[in-house]
Amino acid sequence: MLKKRFFKTKDEVEVTFEVAQQDWATVAVAGDFNNWQPEPMKLNKKEGQFRFKTRLPKAQQVQFRYLFDDTHWDNDPQADTYVANDFGTDNSVVLTEELA
């Protein structure tokens, strides 16, 4: 799941990536914003959610994927859209443009 917070006075958007814990021991997020280097997500045991928060530039289309237990890549089922990648699958996309 994606949560976005837009700032009136800044040219950036705070994006929170969230994934339900399920059977995963670890979850990381990788994408355009971090040179596709998996960034570990923190587990909130009380809520049963892995979470990672970052700020991205406004008016961008940022591609990303989740890495589960360092072995399995998957997309966010609630991403804004998807685009094909060079590996024959799709990447999730988060849009950082504020819609009126």
From TrEMBL:
GO MF terms held by the record: starch binding
Domain CBM20: 12-93
UniProt cross-references to Pfam families, sorted A to Z: AMPK1_CBM
Classification via SMART domains: CBM_2
InterPro entries per the UniProt record, alphabetical: AMPK1_CBM, CBM20, Ig-like_fold, Ig_E-set
Protein name: 1,4-alpha-glucan branching protein
